[in-house]
Amino acid sequence: MLSPSVLIQILVLLAPAVVSVPLSDRSSGNSASTTAVSNATIDDDFVRPAQFSRIAYCSSAAVEAWNCGAPCQALGMNGVTPLVVGGDGGQTPRFFVSHDNKTQSIVVAHQGTDSSNVLSIINDAEFLDVGINTTLFPNAGSNVSVHDGFGKAQARTAQTILSTVQSGLSTYNVSKVLITGHSLGAAIATMDAVMLRMQLPTSVEMNTVVFGAPRGGNEAWADLVDATLGGNFTYITHKDDPVPLVPPQFLGYVHPSGEVHIVATDDASGNATQTISCPGRENENCSDGNSLLASSVSDHLGPYFANVSMSGSSCPL
Ligand SMILES: *[C@@H]1O[C@H](CO)[C@@H](O)[C@H](O)[C@H]1NC(C)=O
Ligand SMILES: *[C@@H]1O[C@H](CO)[C@@H](O)[C@H](O)[C@H]1NC(C)=O
Ligand SMILES: *[C@@H]1O[C@H](CO)[C@@H](O)[C@H](O)[C@H]1NC(C)=O
Ligand SMILES: *[C@@H]1O[C@H](CO)[C@@H](O)[C@H](O)[C@H]1NC(C)=O
Ligand SMILES: *[C@@H]1O[C@H](CO)[C@@H](O)[C@H](O)[C@H]1NC(C)=O
Ligand SMILES: *[C@@H]1O[C@H](CO)[C@@H](O)[C@H](O)[C@H]1NC(C)=O
Ligand SMILES: *[C@@H]1O[C@H](CO)[C@@H](O)[C@H](O)[C@H]1NC(C)=O
Ligand SMILES: *[C@@H]1O[C@H](CO)[C@@H](O)[C@H](O)[C@H]1NC(C)=O
Ligand SMILES: CC(=O)N[C@H]1CO[C@H](CO)[C@@H](O)[C@@H]1O
C-alpha cells in the first residue's frame, strides 16, 4: 500500500508542474474518442495474461512445481510447464518463462511490486532517464532513454529471458510469445518485448499485455515501442490507479500507444463492467485524465479482469 509519506513526496514533486504548467500542456491534448472493449475481447486477449501476471507474485517454489493454488488452477493445472523461474522478490522481482500448452506459446511474466515500492523506485536518486543499453537493444535510436531503475531491473534478467525464450520456441516447436507483467513488472515486460522483437526472427508472433504500468521512458522510447510492437502492445489501466501517471510528463516521460482503460468493476464478481480502448498516446479520456490528487492506490492492485488482483496476498503460496 502507498504510505502517506510517499504520497506526500510525489505530490511535492508534482506541485511545481501543477502551478507552472498550463493545463493544456499537461498532456499531448489527445482527446480522441474511445471505444468500448467487448467481453469477448477481454476473455480472449486479456484474462489469460492477467492470470499469468498474478502468478509472478507466487513463491518461486510454488511456480516451479506449478502448485500455486487458485492462481495456477485458473490457467489449468496441467497445461503450463515452467522453463525458468527466478528473481528474489526484492531487488530482482520474480519472473518466469513457461510453455503454455493451451495457446501453444512461450509466456514471459514479471512480478511487480506494491505501489509504495514502485513509487519509491521512481522517486529514487536514480530518478533520471539513462540512455538505453545498446547491447540488449541493438537497434534503438540514440535518443532513446528509459527510467534508470527500470532499465537496471530489466538488464538483470534480460539474458536469461532471451535465451530461455529462444530455447523454449525451439524445444516446443512453437512460434508465439506472450509477455506480461504488473506494475514495475509491466515496465520490465515492455522492455523485454522490445528487446525480444529486435532479437527474435520475424516469423515469431509476439503479443504484449501489461497491467498498471508506470511511464517507462522518454518520447523516443515511446516512439520505439510503437514502431517495434505496434498494435501488438496493450497496457491496461485500472480506474484511478496513480502509477500510470508517474513519472510525470513534465519530466519528459510519455506512455506509448495501446492503452485499454477499465472504467468500472462494479459487479460483485470482480469482473470489469466497463472497459474502453484509448486511441493515441496519453488519451485524456483514459488514465491521463485522472488526477493524482484523486487517485486510489488500491486500484493499482485490481481487480483487473475475472477477479484477478495482483499482489503478494493474491498468491500466498
Ligand atoms: C496439451 O493439450 C492437449 C490438447 O490440446 C492435450 O491432449 C495434452 O494432454 C496437453 N498436454 C499437457 C501436458 O497438458
Ligand atoms: C535526437 O534529439 C536531437 C535533439 O533533440 C534531435 O535534433 C535529433 O533529431 C534526434 N534524433 C533522432 C534520431 O530522433
Ligand atoms: C547492458 O546489458 C548487458 C547484458 O545484460 C550487461 O552485461 C551490461 O553491463 C549492460 N551495460 C550497461 C552499460 O549497463
Ligand atoms: C514444427 O512445426 C511446424 C509448423 O507447425 C511443422 O511444420 C514441423 O513439422 C514441426 N517440426 C517438428 C520437428 O515437429
Ligand atoms: C502484430 O502481430 C501480427 C501477428 O504476428 C503481425 O502480423 C503484425 O505485423 C504485428 N504488428 C506489428 C505492428 O508489429
Ligand atoms: C475474488 O478474489 C478474491 C481474492 O483476490 C477472493 O477473496 C474473492 O472471494 C473473489 N471473489 C469472487 C466473487 O470470486
Ligand atoms: C460484460 O461482462 C460484465 C461483467 O461480467 C457484465 O457486467 C456485462 O453485462 C457484460 N456485457 C455484455 C454486453 O454482456
Ligand atoms: C466473470 O468473469 C469470468 C471469467 O471471464 C466469467 O467466467 C464469469 O461468468 C464472470 N461473471 C459474471 C457475473 O459475469
Ligand atoms: C468518447 C469520449 O469519452 N469522448 C470524450 C473525450 O474527451 C473529450 C474532451 O475531454 C470529450 O469532449 C469527449 O466527449
From TrEMBL:
InterPro entries: AB_hydrolase_fold (IPR029058), Fungal_lipase-type (IPR002921), Sec_MonoDiacylglyc_Lipase (IPR051218). Residues 1-20 form the signal peptide. It catalyses: a monoacylglycerol + H2O = glycerol + a fatty acid + H(+); a diacylglycerol + H2O = a monoacylglycerol + a fatty acid + H(+). Keywords: Disulfide bond, Hydrolase, Signal. Pfam families: Lipase_3. Residues 107-249 form the Fungal lipase-type domain. GO terms for biological process: lipid metabolic process. One of its GO terms (molecular function) is hydrolase activity. Belongs to the AB hydrolase superfamily. Lipase family. Class 3 subfamily. PANTHER family: ALPHA/BETA-HYDROLASES SUPERFAMILY PROTEIN, FUNGAL LIPASE-LIKE DOMAIN-CONTAINING PROTEIN. This is Alpha/beta-hydrolase.
